[in-house]
């Protein structure tokens, strides 16, 4: 359970620091718009995304069991965070995140890191595609600039409300979102080492500001972003409230644990390394405790940002610490500039993020899987979209384990590296 940073610093040198510094700054430019967009999509203030990226990102790199893991708010949490805020308020989310941190710490100290192999892979794939579907649907309002005060939370009711508001289509907003998506995809192909997300969002937002287009921005909707971290504050814990929020805390802990360990496994394959799963769970626990104390969102290892870190030359956890520090500097110095970011640009960014989360390149492979695995994936997907993430995971894991017991000879899941 020894943090990886203690191992890597034993042979650390100036050359490694420079590589980590460049990679950390690069990842920060990717994480900045994503953190803002994820917070907004979750129903929270955009500043909460920055707080989470700074506090949780720092702790995950400082205490984690992976050399190159980058942590922060991720798209996987959007659905559950939105529901917790809607049902229990933001203070309920803080408490649920705090409790999830305690659960993850306990899991790490009890050496439960290897239990991820017992979770059926079709369940992971099913709820990931389901979450991606919900995220994409939630961004259609801002992408098209539709005039809807508050879209319904239920999936089909949301689609009906969006269709009913089609007459309020805002063409400049749609053009801004589509141009952002084109630029992101184009920059990813032409200059994959560039922080294409921030470049694309910045360019289209600058166009909106220069031509004073009738398009919502972060500032017009949420006001000024804060220019400092909030003071840490202990959530008001009570037994009745904790029991009420326990299911949400368990889902947050499950998602944080699974997503972070999957990300660490992907990173291992990219760098030919070996992460320490129990240290990673302890880091996730500390990160969620820290994020809750500073009023942030749930956090976990971010697969896309971790892959960006590796491709940018990150060698050790110092890159993740630099990433958190760079976002903090932006918050302290350039927060007003972030207020000019256009909402349709962030919506386009999240829609592409959802598309990548669903891993469309793997869909043909799902059609060649066993019928039982196809059924399990489809069931988890449908339950995630039309019912509830708690129900989807509970039913999916239960049926998946029953199928595995029936087969008996099937070994633990051999995870394929997701490219989200």
UniProtKB/TrEMBL annotation:
Sections of the chain in a coiled coil: none
Keyword line: Membrane, Transmembrane, Transmembrane helix
Listed transmembrane segments: 21-41, 92-110, 122-140, 169-187, 194-213, 245-267, 325-355, 375-403
Pfam families to which the protein is assigned, alphabetical: Sulfate_transp
Subcellular location(s) per record: Membrane
Membrane topology according to the record: Multi-pass membrane protein
Ranges for domain SLC26A/SulP transporter: 17-378
Keyword Transmembrane attributed: yes
Taxonomic superkingdom: Bacteria
Name of the protein in question: SulP family inorganic anion transporter
């Amino acid at each position: 359970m020894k943090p990886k940073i203690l191992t890597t610093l034993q042979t650390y040198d100036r050359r490694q620091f420079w590589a980590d510094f460049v990679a950390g700054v690069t990842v920060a430019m990717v994480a900045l718009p994503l953190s803002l967009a994820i917070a907004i999509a979750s129903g929270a203030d955009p500043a909460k995304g920055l707080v989470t990226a700074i506090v949780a990102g720092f702790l995950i790199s400082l205490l984690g069991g992976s050399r190159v893991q980058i942590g922060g708010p991720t798209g996987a949490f959007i659905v559950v965070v939105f529901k917790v805020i809607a049902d229990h308020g933001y203070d309920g989310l803080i408490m649920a995140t705090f409790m999830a941190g305690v659960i993850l710490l306990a899991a790490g100290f009890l050496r439960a890191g290897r239990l991820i192999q017992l979770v059926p892979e079709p369940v992971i794939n099913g709820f990931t595609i389901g979450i991606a579907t919900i995220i994409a649907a939630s961004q259609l309002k801002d992408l098209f600039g539709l005039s809807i005060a508050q879209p319904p939370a239920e999936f089909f009711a949301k689609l009906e409300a969006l269709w009913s508001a089609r007459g309020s289509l805002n063409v400049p907003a749609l053009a801004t979102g589509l141009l952002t998506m084109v630029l992101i995809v184009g920059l990813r192909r032409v200059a994959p080492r560039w922080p294409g997300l921030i470049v694309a969002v910045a360019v289209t937002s600058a166009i909106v500001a220069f031509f004073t287009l009738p398009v919502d921005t972060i500032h017009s909707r949420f006001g000024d972003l804060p220019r400092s971290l909030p003071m840490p504050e202990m959530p008001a814990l009570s037994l009745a409230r904790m029991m009420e929020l326990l299911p949400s805390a368990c889902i947050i802990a499950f998602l944080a644990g699974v997503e972070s360990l999957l990300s660490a496994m992907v990173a291992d394959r990219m760098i030919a390394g070996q992460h320490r799963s129990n240290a990673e769970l302890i880091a996730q626990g500390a990160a969620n405790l820290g994020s809750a104390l500073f009023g942030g969102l749930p956090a976990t290892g971010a697969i896309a940002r971790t892959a960006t870190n590796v491709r940018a030359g990150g060698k050790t956890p110092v890159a993740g610490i630099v990433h958190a520090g760079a976002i903090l500097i932006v918050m302290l110095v350039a927060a007003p500039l972030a207020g000019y970011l256009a909402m349709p640009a962030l919506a386009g960014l999240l829609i592409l993020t959802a598309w990548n989360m669903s891993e469309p390149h793997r869909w043909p492979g799902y059609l060649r899987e066993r019928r039982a695995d196809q059924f399990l994936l489809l069931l988890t997907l449908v339950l995630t979209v039309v019912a509830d993430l708690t129900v989807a995971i509970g039913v999916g894991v239960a049926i998946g384990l029953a199928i595995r017991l029936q087969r008996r000879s099937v070994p633990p899941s051999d995870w394929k590296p997701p490219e989200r």
